[in-house]
């Protein structure tokens, strides 16, 4: 095996790694949980919850949604990137990251869909 | 995904920088990254920081071949093994070939180890519970074998025991990152000082196209995989012991095969460490310990992500090492080795003083003198790993 073959193999190995990372990002299912389960979860876990929006509060930098399902309630933080077209009473499917703020778990939303 | 790729690139660059600095171990970079983690975690997610550490470790383990062979200054136990055959080839004007052999081993070691992950998980999870009661005796047997194969057996034993005593004393000292001064002294500065003493003159390097037989690569990397898997179940033993065991098992005397084996075992050891933390919840590599400190749980998903990162970084680093080796082989005879070595020695001593304090510097100086003994008494430098192995044996026995 010569140096140019080694170069090609190294390049293929690198591209394979990138492809695997892309596939993981694309196809990793984020687990759907009940709101009451979030309290026992670790920070940084990525989850999906479905619930009814009880309140929408707007601050200069973010929206705070009160989300409720049959098991409990949680605050969902949505950083303002664009105007959020969502109001009280909507049912939403939210993907986000669990965080802790003032000893309470909350969800930082990454993706919101109205269902 | 974009964030992950940016972190991979940053980690690779950082790994290359610390890989190029002789005597600077990636664990030292991990110490810095972990101590900065409260700040870094406000910008990066835990998986982002873990990605950075993995990228640093993988690129470092491949690039490390450059200073080990061109400057004769290894960073840790694994590189200590390729100094002799690699440096001999350098003095024959074949430094570039030695690098290509080592990084070929590293790249194929990475591929072989990843392909072998499913049987490795079974091997580790079924094999480890079977041997756990006998670990101390197996390690003693392995060390006895390694000492008995030396010509100067008495000094090999003395070096092993002295290193062990220094290791036990250092680990029990109330200093920060005790392994940093210990390893910097045993493997880093001691080799640099001997290089200064020997006043090596490096000849002009050959510029020829390197061609390695596929059979040689396959045999050497497979041997690394087998010996690396066995050693991975024995705490304290690392890639150096794996490489010696492997070459003894296949009775391989050829220095080219040995360099492929050493390159292979460094990346194989890294992948097995990931499998080990997943299957046994035991971290056996400084970088993986750092990752496990950041990540609270280590799932199969994390394992796949880190393996993919290792592939990306491994491929890129191999290409960079090939290109850099050509530069090194052109300019090596122009580098002032003495000034470079003295700068690194001063830098490491200051870093030890900052991180581990004044007592750390005492450990460093003790370790430096001990680290010079193997060369002066013509025994393998791997016996210095007694600094970790003896405490492990006593831990299991007492």
Describe it:
The complex is a heterodimer of chains A (115) and B (398). With 115 residues, chain A is of the alpha+beta class. Chain A has two domains: 1-29; 35-114, Nucleic acid-binding proteins (OB fold (Dihydrolipoamide Acetyltransferase, E2P)). Chain A has two helices and five strands; from the N terminus they run H-H-E-E-E-E-E. Chain A starts with a helix and ends with a strand. The mean pLDDT of chain A is 87. With 398 residues, chain B is mainly α. The longest helix of chain B has 40 residues, at 337-376. In chain B, helix 8 crosses helix 14 (255-279). Chain B has 18 helices and no strands. The chains are: A alpha+beta (115), B mainly alpha (398). Chain A binds chain B through residues 1-3, 6-7, 9-18, 20-22, 24-25, 28, 42, 44, 97, and chain B through 1, 4-5, 45-47, 100, 103-104, 107, 110-111, 209-214, 217, 296-297, 301, 304-305, 307-316, 318-319, 322.
Please supply descriptive tags for the structure shown above.
heterodimer, A: 115 residues, alpha+beta, OB fold (Dihydrolipoamide Acetyltransferase, E2P), 2 domains, 2 helices, 5 strands, 25% helix, B: 398 residues, mainly alpha, 0% strand, globular
Give the arrangement of secondary structure elements:
The complex is a heterodimer of chains A (115) and B (398).
Chain A lengths: L2 H25 L7 H4 L7 E13 L3 E7 L4 E7 L11 E11 L2 E11 L1
Parallel strand pairs in A: 3-5
Antiparallel strand pairs in A: 1-2, 1-4, 2-3, 4-5
Chain B lengths: L1 H19 L5 H10 L1 H4 L5 H18 L1 H7 L5 H15 L3 H21 L1 H15 L3 H14 L4 H20 L6 H20 L15 H19 L6 H11 L5 H25 L6 H9 L5 H32 L5 H40 L9 H12 L1
């Amino acid at each position: 095996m010569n140096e140019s073959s080694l170069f090609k193999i190294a390049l293929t190995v690198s591209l394979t790694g990138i492809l695997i990372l892309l596939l993981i990002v694309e196809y990793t299912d984020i687990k759907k949980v009940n709101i009451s389960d979030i309290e026992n979860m670790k920070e940084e876990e990525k989850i999906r919850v479905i619930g009814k929006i009880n309140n929408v509060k707007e601050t200069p930098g973010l929206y705070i949604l009160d989300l409720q399902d049959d098991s409990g309630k949680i605050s969902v933080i949505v950083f303002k990137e664009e105007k959020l077209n969502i109001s009280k009473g909507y049912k939403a499917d939210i993907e986000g990251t669990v965080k802790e703020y003032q000893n309470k778990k909350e969800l930082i939303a990454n993706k919101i869909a109205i269902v | 995904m974009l964030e992950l790729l940016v972190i991979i690139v940053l980690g690779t660059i950082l790994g290359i920088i610390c890989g190029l600095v002789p005597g600077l171990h990636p664990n030292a970079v991990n110490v810095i990254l972990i101590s900065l983690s409260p700040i870094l975690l406000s910008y990066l997610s835990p998986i982002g920081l873990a990605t950075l550490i993995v990228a640093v470790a993988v690129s470092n383990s491949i690039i490390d071949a450059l200073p080990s062979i061109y400057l004769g200054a290894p960073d840790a136990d694994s590189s200590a093994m390729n100094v002799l055959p690699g440096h001999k080839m350098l003095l024959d004007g074949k430094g570039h070939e030695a690098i290509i052999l080592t990084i070929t081993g590293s790249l194929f070691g990475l591929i072989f180890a990843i392909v072998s992950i499913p049987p490795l998980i079974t091997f580790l999870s079924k094999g480890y519970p079977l041997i756990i009661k006998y670990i101390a005796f197996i390690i003693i047997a392995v060390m006895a074998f390694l000492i008995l194969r030396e010509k100067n057996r008495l000094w090999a034993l003395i070096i092993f025991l002295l290193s062990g005593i220094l290791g036990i004393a250092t680990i029990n000292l109330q200093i920060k990152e005790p392994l940093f001064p210990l390893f910097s002294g045993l493997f880093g500065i001691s080799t640099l000082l001997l290089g200064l003493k020997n006043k090596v003159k490096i000849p002009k390097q050959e510029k020829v196209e390197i061609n390695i037989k596929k059979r040689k690569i396959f045999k050497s990397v497979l041997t690394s995989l087998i010996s690396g898997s066995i050693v991975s179940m024995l705490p304290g033993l690392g890639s150096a012991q794996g490489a010696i065991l492997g070459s003894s098992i296949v009775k391989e005397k050829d220095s080219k095969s040995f360099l492929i084996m050493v390159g292979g075992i460094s990346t194989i050891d890294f992948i097995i460490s990931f499998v080990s933390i997943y299957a046994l919840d035991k971290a056996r590599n400084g970088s993986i310990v750092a990752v496990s400190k950041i990540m609270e749980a280590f799932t199969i998903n994390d394992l796949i992500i880190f393996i993919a990162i290792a592939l990306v970084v491994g491929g890129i680093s191999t290409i960079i090492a090939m290109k850099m080796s050509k530069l090194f082989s052109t300019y090596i005879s122009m580098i002032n080795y003495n000034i470079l070595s003295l700068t690194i020695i001063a830098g490491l001593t200051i870093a030890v003083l900052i991180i581990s304090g004044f007592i750390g510097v005492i450990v460093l100086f003790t370790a430096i003198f001990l680290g010079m003994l193997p060369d002066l008494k013509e025994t393998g430098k791997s016996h210095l790993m007694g600094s970790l192995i003896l405490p492990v044996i006593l831990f299991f026995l007492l």
